[in-house]
Design a protein that fits this description.
Number of helices: 10
Largest sheet: 15 strands, mixed
Oligomer: single chain
CATH architecture of the largest domain: Roll
CATH topology of the largest domain: C8orf32 fold
Shape: globular
Number of strands: 26
Structural class: alpha+beta
Distance between the termini: 29 Å
């Protein structure tokens, strides 16, 4: 569970930086969470040879069950002086795992990508999102629009960290006195509302000076409020506080859900906070209904695994075929992943049997359920044999795809009473257990998407039970975790109704 939560914080940081216009020269920011200084950001802009290079670096350190985890990211964009995108680079370091993505955009809008992880390079292409800009393009738009109170405009901003564009609606507010670490400065409020398909809205509030330089920004991320405040270099790079996040990773259950694995169906009343608009997906195991008061009823009834289905998949459905392809984190074409998949499946001919064998294999294969891993790819997990639920999920999905069973990574929340060193029921406010950020897999078997949860299997919790609520579905790439950024902290679970056979 910890990987998704930290990843959602990480995504919030890179998106928060992405909606800010490029700065002049170099500026330093202190990063605060829950009132504690947890890291810093460095943002710079350099113009030379008719090109503009913008760089943002962020480092924060958090603690999970007294285990310190450092998150580093660096994004660089290169554009022409009129804002046309030329290239970009994103380096992501979550604990011991490092991934680098570099892209070059040609005049036809084709992006040549190179992804590097564990010394291995993967080449691919993608289409540049229509109308998307990067840092310099956003700076030029901001200069054009200015800071007139009441003005509104929209933009599409490409983030190298998620390899996608974020739609942003900007509204200019009034000038007001803002506290910048003891300095009171008159700044203009700028509200940016960010949306992406499959994710709820994220609202970033910034405060700009008359030169259009960001002096402070505030964004809610995964139940936290992250603040970035402009400050002297010495303070930004100075000593940080320690923020324990483990107990913040959970939503309280309104009632104990003992032996939830024996339930056939669970209906959850998700009650939005602060008039949030929730975006919850439909799946074969999950139905969604919204009430007039904004409450969302999510009914989870795990699909019975069909028997008699064969693999590899021979159909022609484009979406299902997409779930057979290797991706940045689900590297089903890597030799070591293919070998593990073949070893797990053995002589199984039935797709359901093969999927269950993969689920059980991964449950036993990941030996070190380490809190020190940030977010690893399937190939990295195959080599290291360590991680927790996100690592279980990407390896399970990759092994399924390697033998021709379509598979997707599901991100959401799941009910638990205990989590590693933390007994949830002993924590204040969690007497009934809690729901924490989680990742699992759904595999396409016999015309149905069936849930697989190797992490729960490994922990002796049975597998993908009715205690799992899906928030997004994808290929296990960082951008698929935006649902946690936009929904954690935006709702509470008001009521749960269980049906048992």
């Amino acid at each position: 569970m910890k990987s998704r939560y930290l990843l959602s914080i990480y995504l919030g940081l890179i998106i928060a930086g992405g909606v800010e216009p490029a700065l002049a020269d170099t500026e330093y920011f202190a990063v605060f969470m829950e009132g504690k200084k947890v890291g810093h950001a460095i943002m710079s802009r350099q113009a030379a040879d008719e090109k503009v290079t913008t760089t943002e670096k962020v480092r924060i350190t958090l603690s999970r069950a007294n285990v310190p985890i450092t998150i580093d990211m660096a994004e660089t964009s290169v554009e022409t002086t009129d804002g046309r995108p030329l290239s970009f680079e994103a380096v992501q370091e979550l604990s011991a795992m490092t991934m680098k993505v570099a892209g070059t955009i040609n005049k036809q809008g084709v992006v040549e990508l190179t992804t590097t992880s564990m010394g291995n390079e993967q080449k691919s292409t993608m289409q540049w999102p229509s109308g998307a800009v990067m840092a310099e393009g956003l700076r030029m738009l901001t200069l054009k629009k200015g800071l007139k109170e009441g003005a509104e405009y929209s933009a599409r901003i490409f983030s190298p960290g998620i390899l996608d564009a974020v739609d942003v609606k900007v509204r200019i507010g009034r000038k007001q006195n803002i506290d910048l670490l003891g300095r009171i400065v008159a700044l203009t409020e700028v509200t940016s509302t960010l949306t992406m398909p499959g994710a709820s809205e994220i609202i970033n509030t910034s405060y700009m000076d008359d030169e259009l330089r960001i002096q402070k920004s505030i964004m809610p991320v995964a139940g936290f409020q992250i603040e970035m405040v402009a400050c002297p270099k010495e303070f930004a790079l100075g000593e940080d506080d320690v923020l324990e996040v483990l107990e913040k990773m959970f939503l309280a259950s309104p009632q104990p859900l003992d032996n939830i694995g024996s339930a056939s169906t669970a209906a959850y009343h998700l009650v939005p906070t602060k008039q949030a608009k929730l975006t919850i997906p439909f799946t074969d195991s999950q139905k969604v209904r919204q009430l007039e008061d904004g409450t969302v009823i999510v009914t989870v009834k795990p699909v019975t695994v069909p028997t008699g289905a064969r693999f590899p998949y021979k159909g022609k459905d484009a979406a299902i075929l997409e779930s057979l392809k290797p991706t940045r984190f689900v590297q089903s074409d890597r030799k070591e992943v293919i070998e593990l998949a073949r070893r797990a499946v053995g002589d199984a001919k039935d797709a359901a049997e093969a999927a269950r064998k993969i689920e059980a294999f991964v449950a036993g294969y990941v030996e070190n359920k380490s809190l020190s891993i940030g977010y690893a790819s399937a190939a990295e997990v195959a080599a290291s044999r360590q991680g927790d639920c996100s690592e279980f999920a990407v390896l399970t999905a990759a092994m399924c795809r390697a033998v021709g069973i379509p598979a997707q990574v599901v991100v959401g929340i799941a009910y638990v009473r205990d989590f590693g060193p933390l007994t949830i029921g002993e924590q204040e406010g969690f007497d009934n257990g809690a729901f924490g950020g989680h990742a699992w897999v759904q595999a396409y078997i016999g015309n149905k998407w069936v849930g697989l949860d190797a992490a729960f299997k490994s922990a002796g919790l049975g597998g993908c039970d009715p205690g799992h609520i899906a928030l997004s579905i994808g290929n296990g790439n960082p951008e698929d975790f935006l649902s946690l950024v936009s929904t954690m902290g935006q709702f509470k679970i008001g009521k749960v109704m269980l049906e048992r056979p």
